[in-house]
Design brief:
- With 168 residues, this protein is an alpha/beta fold.
- It has 5 helices and 8 strands.
- A 4-stranded mixed sheet has the order 1-4-3-2, with helices on one face. It has a 4-stranded mixed sheet with strand order 5-8-7-6.
């Protein structure tokens, strides 16, 4: 059987929580599954039966993971961005991924495993690229003052910058 997938896949280094993380993430994202977990055997360097490595799919994207120990924790230098259709999707991913983690600013958070996520409504991209510079700057300033991105507040800031609602 041949599996078609991208030749480029993220590989995440966990201390010793790969299986827990894979279950957490696949419980949040649609079209997700734990595809394979390799466990140490009796002769392996790890505890027999404990997870060594594995693959899981989140909304169609395959991730590899290893339990490599505490030497290399996650940092914000690598993050995953979720483009959300609307505020309810922003709220869902924010609440789910921040549970047990740490909220940051400008739509960023760290989940309980220390992995960074950007929860971004598509509307933010539209507003910061608005052809009216005052609207774009106002939306950007509003975003910079937020933790979780709130679409209605972005739109209100953009509209207030020119004293009227956006055409459309």
């Amino acid at each position: 059987m041949s599996i078609t997938r991208s030749p480029i896949q993220p590989c995440l280094w966990f201390d010793d929580t790969l299986e827990e993380a894979a279950r957490f993430y696949t419980g949040i994202f649609p079209n997700s599954s734990i595809d394979h977990l390799s466990r140490y055997g009796d002769a392996g360097p790890g505890t027999p039966g404990s997870v060594m490595a594995g693959e899981f799919t989140l909304d169609g994207m395959t991730f590899r993971g290893i339990n490599g120990g505490p030497a290399f924790p996650f940092t914000e230098a690598i993050s995953f961005s979720i483009a959300c259709r609307d505020q309810s999707e922003v709220d869902y991913y924010w609440d789910s991924l921040a549970d047990g983690g740490e909220e940051s600013v400008c739509g960023w958070l760290k989940d309980r495993f220390g992995l960074s996520w950007q929860i971004v409504p598509v509307r933010l991209y539209e507003l910061v690229a608005d052809p009216v510079p005052e609207r774009a700057m106002a939306a950007t300033r509003a975003m910079l003052g937020m933790r979780r991105i709130v679409v209605a507040e972005l739109e209100a800031a953009a509209d207030a910058a020119v004293g009227t609602a956006a055409p459309g």
